[in-house]
């Protein structure tokens, strides 16, 4: 059993840079990993796992990673057995519903009975 903390971060994308900056601000020195899947901190017992954001909740809930930094949208959508510990306040996103420009949008009732293509069916269901 390892006594090193394992943290999962997004390997590329909006959250990657902010996550690595946060670790640096905490005084933890890591190399970027150079395209590798894992980096080791040189001055703290920490391994950083570089993963796809959609995979982070699964790795945390299965115990492969001790914690992860990911968007709240992915956290909610993946619905794994994890808990939200802290909202970090960086890399915010907005999810939107899109309709044709020529439609005079009457409000959310416009979507009643319509099929909606989405990557976030759980979030959409909660919103509707």
- Structural class category: alpha/beta
Query: Which stretches are poorly predicted, pLDDT < 50 over at least 5 residues?
Result: none
- The rounded Rg comes to 18 Å
Mean pLDDT: 88
Report how far apart the termini are: 45 Å
Q: Specify the biggest β-sheet.
A: 4 strands, mixed
Q: Give the CA-based shape.
A: elongated
Order of helices and strands: EHEEHEHH
Which percent band covers the strand fraction? Answer: 5-15%
Helix content: 25-40%
Strand order of the largest sheet: 2-3-1-4
What's the total count of β strands? 4
Put simply, the count of helices is 4
Write structural notes for this entry.
- The protein is elongated, with a radius of gyration of 18 Å.
- The protein has helices spanning 14-25, 56-61, 72-78, 121-127, and strands at 5-10, 38-40, 46-51, 67-68.
- The chain is α/β, with parallel strands linked by helices and 128 residues long.
List the helices and strands and how they pair.
Layout: E1 5-10, H1 14-25, E2 38-40, E3 46-51, H2 56-61, E4 67-68, H3 72-78, H4 121-127
Parallel strand pairs: 1-3, 1-4
Antiparallel strand pairs: 2-3
List keywords for this structure.
128 residues; alpha/beta; four-stranded mixed β-sheet
In short:
The protein is of the alpha/beta class. Helices cover 25% and strands 13% of the residues.
């Amino acid at each position: 059993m390892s006594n090193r903390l394992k943290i999962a971060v997004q390997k590329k994308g909006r959250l990657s840079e902010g996550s690595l900056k946060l670790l640096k601000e905490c005084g933890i020195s890591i190399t970027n990993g150079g395209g590798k899947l894992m980096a080791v901190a040189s001055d703290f017992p920490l391994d950083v796992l570089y993963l796809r954001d959609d995979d982070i909740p699964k790795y945390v809930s299965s115990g492969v990673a001790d914690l992860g930094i990911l968007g709240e949208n992915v956290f909610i959508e993946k619905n794994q057995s994890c808990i939200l510990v802290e909202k970090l306040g960086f890399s915010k996103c907005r999810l939107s519903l899109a309709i044709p420009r020529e439609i005079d949008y009457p409000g959310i009732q416009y979507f009643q009975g319509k099929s909606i293509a989405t990557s976030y069916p759980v979030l959409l269901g909660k919103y509707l």
